[in-house]
Write a structure and sequence with these properties.
about 500 residues; alpha/beta; Rossmann fold; 3 domains; six-stranded mixed sheet; globular; binds 6-O-phosphono-beta-D-fructofuranose
Length: about 500
């Protein structure tokens, strides 16, 4: 079934066509109110969309689309625990882990379960703190790794050096676990195995290596929705924290999946992270569309993808502590929105998610910014800055902010030259997200903003943000190839057969 209906985004095309002849600096020059009017504040977060390549008329068309799609009701459905994950028949109640914004009985029950799990987690953290453990290895992958890894890294200074160090092992490559364990003392280390399914190959293999190295089962903890499987792995139920079907892996850092975060920054810090996300939840749910930062962010994504046809989106945090944000967002955004079937099964004719990628400034300026400034493809960017430095190197911070502002300006304005090699065309769109300071609250708000933007984009595209069938095929093929690599079977595919012969042959030669 192919979707042949007129696209909801058709109304954008005349605007895109019109604006082809009006680059961003011209739009700014003719509209004095734009810097203020194209900006939204939500608590500690200020978002400026003034350097996007749209004008008021194009925005009107975008907000009309938002009204027609009834984004306000879509958010209400999410918060009320409706079955928004239709292909798997599940709710997606990550908001219930941190907010209390629904009267629905099953949502209140979910919030109560999350609170009870946090209370158990707090007790485990007290036990670990009292045990003399200095290091904790967190084993998990995808949503059971990227969120905790990002937040623990971003906020680790908040622990003041008094918290255990948290290390993350995700990749099935044995070099990852070897490198991590080689710096640690098993007598002072604990482990947490995080897996919603407790069936993920990488986590089970790495978890086995870590458990065997530790030789102390009393210091192995788990977080899983499949308590039975975790228990069968040999972890005592008293050390298994729950997860639930109604939380998607990539939306789960607010649950006990955030155990490594709470270890790294303390339980108070973890609660503050949830409070910041809850404030963004309240903003997203209750703020009219025109003042709603999540709606602005989602509509901007739609504009850049479906009206301006950008195939790529950069995310550029100008704060070393947020260096893992692009990795985290790659899963959140691309696993959620990398779909080509609509909710009703019709195959989409337009485009959904572009490729998300990025890195932390100013390093990225010296690596890939050349292509962003002068390459043939326009890559919209989310720049993220933090106003308060939280370190004593004032000159560094001034230089960092100068670079951040300079890049957003140079992207948009460019600079003409008679020499084509030295000309900057400009007209590169960007959003600037500014946090007052990097705190648990502001980081919680920033992540929740992206979650809500992703959901709203999925509503506008008519796709399911909460399944990920696309990752299954590779896993199935890999499991079929295991016996072939061990020499116990033949691969079906002729190219794979030749590659296996090469690998096995060369491996023998090197022994
Ligand atoms: O990459 C696929 C995926 O299913 C992700 O959605 C998930 O976050 C990850 O694997 C890990 O899954 P689990 O938590 O079940 O180990």
């Amino acid at each position: 079934m192919t979707d042949k209906s007129p696209s909801a985004f058709d109304a954008l095309h005349p605007h895109a066509e019109r604006l082809r002849h009006s680059p961003i600096p011209d739009l700014i020059a003719i509209d004095a109110g734009r810097p203020q009017d194209f900006a939204v504040r939500a608590g500690p977060l200020y978002a400026s969309f003034a350097r996007q390549h749209y004008d008021r008329a194009a925005l009107d068309a975008l907000f009309d689309i938002a009204e027609t799609a009834d984004l306000a009701s879509a958010l209400r459905r999410l918060f009320d625990g409706d079955i928004v994950n239709v292909t798997e028949g599940r709710a997606a109640l990550h908001t219930a882990l941190r907010s209390d914004l629904s009267g629905a009985a099953h949502v209140r029950e979910a919030t109560a379960q999350a609170r009870a799990a946090r209370a158990r987690m707090a007790t485990m953290i007290e036990e670990l703190d009292a045990s003399g453990v200095t290091d904790v290895v967190s084993v998990g992958i995808g949503g059971s790794d990227l969120g905790p890894r990002l937040v623990a890294d971003a906020l680790r200074d908040a622990g003041g050096g008094r918290r255990p160090r948290v290390h993350f092992v995700s990749n099935v490559d044995g070099n990852a676990v070897r490198r991590t364990l080689s710096q640690l003392d098993p007598a002072r280390t604990a482990a947490i195995l995080i897996s919603k399914t407790f069936g993920t190959q990488e986590t089970l293999l790495n978890g086995t290596v870590v458990r065997d190295w530790l030789r102390n089962d009393a210091r192995v903890y788990a977080v899983s929705a499949n308590v039975q499987r975790a228990a069968a792995f040999g972890i005592d139920e008293s050390r298994i924290l729950p997860m639930w079907d109604w939380v998607g892996g990539r939306y789960s850092l607010w649950s006990a999946v955030g155990f490594p975060i709470a270890l790294a920054i303390g339980m108070d810090g973890f609660e503050r992270l949830l409070a910041g996300a809850a404030d963004m939840d309240a903003h997203a749910l209750a703020t009219p569309l025109r003042d709603n930062v999540a709606v602005w962010h989602a509509l901007t994504a739609i504009w850049n993808r479906n009206a301006m046809h950008a195939g790529s989106q950069a995310v550029l945090p100008y704060d070393e502590r947020l260096r893992l944000l692009p990795n985290y967002l790659q899963q959140l955004v691309m696993e959620s929105l990398g779909k080509s079937a609509r909710l009703d099964g019709a195959v989409l004719t337009g485009h959904t998610v572009p490729v998300w990628w990025g890195g932390a400034g100013t390093d990225t300026q010296h690596s890939f910014f050349q292509a962003l400034h002068q390459g043939t493809q326009i890559v919209p960017a989310d720049f993220i800055g933090v106003i308060r430095a939280d370190h004593a190197h004032a000159e560094n911070h001034t230089a960092l902010l100068a670079n951040l502002l300079a890049q957003t300006e140079a992207f948009a304005n460019g600079q003409p030259s008679d020499d084509p090699h030295r000309a900057y065309a400009g007209n590169r769109p960007s959003t600037l997200l500014l946090l007052d300071a990097l705190t648990p609250e502001s980081l919680g708000a920033l992540i929740a903003l992206y979650e809500h933007s992703v959901y709203l984009q999925s509503v506008l595209w008519g796709i399911n943000a909460f399944d990920q069938f696309g990752v299954e095929l590779g896993k199935q093929v890999a499991s079929k190839l295991l016996p072939a690599l061990q020499g116990d079977a033949e691969a079906d595919d002729p190219v794979t057969r030749a590659l296996l012969a090469e690998i096995i042959g060369r491996d023998r030669l090197m022994k």
